[in-house]
Amino acid sequence: METLTDQELAAAHMARYDLGPGYPQLEPPSWFAEIVNSEEVRAASLSFPPAWNPRRSVKVDQDIESAVRSLLRIPESAHVMPTFSGSVALDRAMTAVVRLARHRGCTNVRVITTSPSIDIMKLFLSERSEIEPTFVRAKDSSEPPFILDSQAFCEAVGSSCERFPESMHVALLTSPENPTGEIWTIEQLESVSRLCRDLKAVLMVDHCFLLAGVQDATPPAVWDVAQPGLDWIGIWDTGKTLGLNEEKLGFIVSGGESLPEKVSSAVNTVQFGVARRQKMSLAKILSHERFSQYTRQLRQACLDNADVLRDTFSDHAQFLLRTPRAGSFALIDCAHLGMTDESIRKELLKRDVGVIAGRVFFHAEPVPSSYLRLALAREPMHFKESVLKLRYELLRM
Ligand SMILES: Cc1ncc(COP(=O)(O)O)c(C=O)c1O
To answer: 0.90 cut: is pTM over it?
Structure first.
């Protein structure tokens, strides 16, 4: 079956009305262009010693790190490491955990995570023979469906630790979640964090959509609940917020006794560094005085587009919509069409509309097969045209 990335690429390459990839496709403010095209950034990218010197290299690294630290309110004690993207950050975080397990003499790693959730998690886990995953299902029969079941999650972590004391355990969460937009509250994160500390399990949270949250509040992060004795990792990347056509960086934030050191060595296995140009321009964008205004506009565009989606389908109650609490996706349930999500997706693609088949996000039975994921972070006019076209084509099926 095709993965999320395969489907996103198909939508981006084939559909004029592209509601596939989650990256924002909104015209950036003019100050972005001033930074990206600035002479300072271009000249630094093309400078070599002796014109360039170690002091300037250190400054570039310090600037991007302090921009990310102050934007995300990451405590001093945490370790921050840049890498190419969110996926590379997740991949290296997983490798760091496997190295920690070897260091502790554990026989294998048991990862407890959620379903539905982003499919790259599952793909990464299946690539590593030393990892055994467990997927805890959301409450899919609740209204709205797919509410996180934090109690079931904590029970699963507890019972895995009890049954397999020779394994290392990882509690792996995503907040805001892709595609449901569910977030882990501070109380829920605190209880998972306490549990992990007591059971010597690692807490890993993917926060890639952290700043693409709906409304003003930024969801709580793992570093807000990290406590002495806990080994933890948080992932963040710029791609879900800035949408600069794949110009992005991922970050691995970590804490605990030996995890930061394992993260550094895992990252250094695949990279000497990331592009100087990207570190410079992203540091300037993230610390710009108008950056929070930009993220507010992005969130507002997602909220407005969600309203447009609801209005467009208001006379067609047979299509059930689920608009998010955070993040930038909506789900539409097309069960009444009697077709699978995958066949609807393929049919829509032929008719110039790009969407994602919801089943790629489900990793535990029963897997629903009637949801489509729609990206909300789009130019308002283009989004409206796209959902009108989507409705027109769905009603013809
Ligand atoms: C929750 C989440 N984490 C990580 C990633 C991977 O990020 P990147 O595109 O930077 O590789 C994605 C991609 O969609 C995602 O949704």
So the answer is: yes
